[in-house]
Each structure stands twice: as structure tokens, then as C-alpha cells.
Amino acid sequence: MPAMSAKSVTHKELMAFARRLGEAEYRSKLNYFRIMEYPLALTLLDVQPGMSVLEVGSGFISLPPLWLAAERGARVTAVDREPYTAEHREHIETLMKRVAIAPEALRIVSADARQLPFADGAFDRISAVSALEHLDLFTDAYVARELGRVLKPGGRFVFTVPFNLGKHIENEDWGGEGYEQRHYTDATLSERLIHPSGLHFVDAIAFGETDPATGKKVLAMPDDERRRFAEKAGKNPAQYWREYFRADDDQFVVHRSLLPDWVLRASGLIAVVLEKRDAPLSKSYFLYDPLASFAANEKLARQADNSPYWLSIDQVRVENLFGDEVSVFESGESCRVLISFTCHGEVEDPAFRVLFHDESDKVVAGLHVARSGERLGKLTGKHVLEVHFGMLNLVGGPYRLTVGAWDRDLPDPIPPVAYDLHVMRYAITVNDRKRGLAGVAYTPYAIRLE
């Protein structure tokens, strides 16, 4: 199998390297949850000396980019969306000196993975180890497309994410550590990461703990006890982590009978290998229904011969009548929603929606452009759509706005495929001091396209 022809990387080898970074770094990078994940991902990545590698979600800084630069002789670019301060950069430079990494062999970049500052085909290899599941809501498909863009023909992309066959989990607090993550099913993994990347599937390995209760116990341990346990587990990783299933027949098909029951119901992990090839991909896609998923967390829809990733919403601005960006309105006051968007290629007559959700998340008002009789025509490049609500006739209280764009020809009431969708992302408050104007169903509007 192509993905496993590389020399295997071991946990013991990675921890020996971590000790060279210093005792504090060794302690911080000694992680029970990575004793199989890091070696597996790096083995699948198969980096050769001189290759250019992009490491996504590397933090301040993770072990793989340092190891790849020092031990594999790669030219590594580590990207994270958080800004790197002067202290961060000084710390990373100190680590580089300890393991003799030349300045040109490792660079760190703060960037949004949806819009990477790199040329097409800039990298031989791309890795994202437990990173993509932490992306903002409904942005993963765009990041997958962007990573496919910057990968060289013949290049390889390896990523790992939480994986289960119970149901897709969009957003969960995990580990009490103040950050969120999603779990993918086999369907949403295909729809949101594999197909949008434009890359060809090569291999996937589903893996996880031999006893899922162990991880929960580890999370509850004090730091010193957790470190000691990680060292113990690292001496015999196979006792704690194992491969459950491998899909390597050039199509991503998961056989449920080969996975343990707890993975079916809860979560394991999966490592996926994709390659960039000249041969075209199949034109049949399973596409994700983000609005239905947000509400029901389990509905999927099929739309053949169509990709939704041709229009992206770049910015949404909520203003008052005077053009000031505000979040508090009076009942009956004028409200303008400015939607800046980009058409990647020619998009014919996209249908926009602006929906107001109350505290129970129900839609209580809004606008469906396709129902309004407005037609936007054939669009390319950047535009701004201004939706002007002449009277915000809402009962007082907090609201959140959903803004989205769809293909007009797809069915209602919830189209199965959105071009882009910002679900309840924009918060406003309405004061109903003018009670005669509060709670009226009709919300007059006007639309203008620039």
C-alpha cells in the first residue's frame, strides 16, 4: 500500500527527540492521546529530505514541524490562526537552536487557513494532526479546498480527526480545556473534507483506545500523574491504542462490522491520506446540509454533479440607518445588513437569506431573496448585497442573525446545499419601547446589489 511504504516513525523516536528540546518541552509534549496519532500521521506523510511541508494548526509550537525539519531535512512552514507574539517567536527560535534547525528550514506564519498566503502548488506535503475539527462552524470545507489548492501535483495531504459512526457532532466542549471540536462520520468526512479538497483518496486508518475509559481517567489526573502515565503508556503503545480498520481501495468506504461498538456509538480517531493527481475526480458528491445539521445534527442530502463551493460570504455588517455598525435597535427602527461576498467563477442568480432567530433559536422574521421576486443575474468576482429592513418590527429581546447564500434552483424550504452559511453568527438586541411597532409580522425591506 503506497501510504505505508515509508519508514515507520515510532513514539520512542519522537520522545527521544522531545528530550533534546529540553525537559520542560518534553513534559509539555508528552501526551497520552498522541502516542499513536503522531507516529501514524508522520509515517503516512512519508516526508523525504528537501521536501516542502505545510503543518496546519501547529500552535506555539507542536512536535511534528520541529521533528520534520530536524530529523527529515524538510523545509517546513507551520501555520496557525492565532498571532505569534515576539515571545512566541523567541521561544521557537530557542528550540530550533537546541536541535540545530537552520532558520530557513522552519518558518512560522499566522494565517486564516481559508485564505492561505501561498501560491498554488507550493507544498509537497501537508499535515493537519487533530486540527481541522477545531475550525469554526461550517468552515472546514473551505479550508479543505484551500489546502488542496496549495498542494503540488503528486503531493500528499494527511490529516487526523475524531471519528465515529454514531452521528456527526458539530460542536462540543471537550476535556474541560475551554475549546471546542467536532466529530466526523464517514459521510460528513467525505462531504466536508475529502471531496471539497479536490484530492484523490488513498488510505484511511481508523484507530482508537483499546479501552475508551482510560482516556477519561487520564483527563481527570493531576499533571504529574498524567505525565507518569503517559510515560508508562509510551513504553508499550499497543497496549493502549490500536488500529481498528483500514480503507485503502481508492474509495472511502467504512465497513461497520469491523469497528468495535464503542466507536460506532461514540468516537475514535481516523487518519486520512489524500493525493493530488491529474486524473479528474468523480462528479458525484455527497454534500453536507449545514442548516439541517445545525438543527437536527443528523440529516444528509444528496445532490449529484454539483459542487457548492463557488460563492463565499466574506463579511457581514449590521448597520443603522446612518451607516453606523451597531448591535442595539429600537422596535420600528431601520436596519441594514450588508453582505460582502465573492463569486469564484460565474454564479447565476444566487438566493440569499437573512433570518432572525429569537432566544429559543426559532426563526421569527427574515427575508428569502428568491421569494421576493428579486433576481441578481449572473455574477462573478466581489459584490456587496445590501438588505434594508425599513422597520424592525420585533418584540424586545436578544436575536441572532443567520446569513446564507444558496443556488436558487435547489428545493425549499431548506435547500440541501448552501454556497455559504453563517448560522446565528450575528447578535443584535431590540428594545420595544415603541410597543405599537413591536411584534408585527410584516418586515418591509429593500435590496440593492453593488
SSE topology sketch:
Layout: H1 11-20, H2 23-29, H3 37-45, E1 52-56, H4 63-71, E2 75-80, H5 86-98, E3 106-110, E4 123-129, H6 140-150, E5 151-163, E6 169-174, E7 179-183, H7 186-197, E8 200-209, H8 212-220, H9 223-235, E9 241-247, H10 261-265, E10 268-275, E11 286-287, H11 290-296, E12 301-302, E13 311-319, E14 328-330, E15 335-348, E16 350-357, E17 363-368, H12 369-372, E18 378-389, E19 397-407, E20 418-431, E21 445-449
Parallel strand pairs: 1-2, 1-4, 2-3, 4-5, 14-20
Antiparallel strand pairs: 5-10, 6-7, 8-9, 8-10, 11-12, 13-15, 15-18, 16-17, 16-19, 18-21, 19-20
Helix pairs in contact: 1-2, 6-7
Task: Write structural notes for this entry.
The chain is of the alpha+beta class and 450 residues long. It has 12 helices and 21 strands. It has an 8-stranded mixed sheet, with helices on both faces. The chain has a 5-stranded mixed sheet with strand order 14-20-19-16-17. A 4-stranded antiparallel sheet has the order 13-15-18-21, with no helix packed on it. The relative contact order is 0.10. Residues 1-5, 283-309, 411-416 and 438-442 have low confidence and may be disordered.
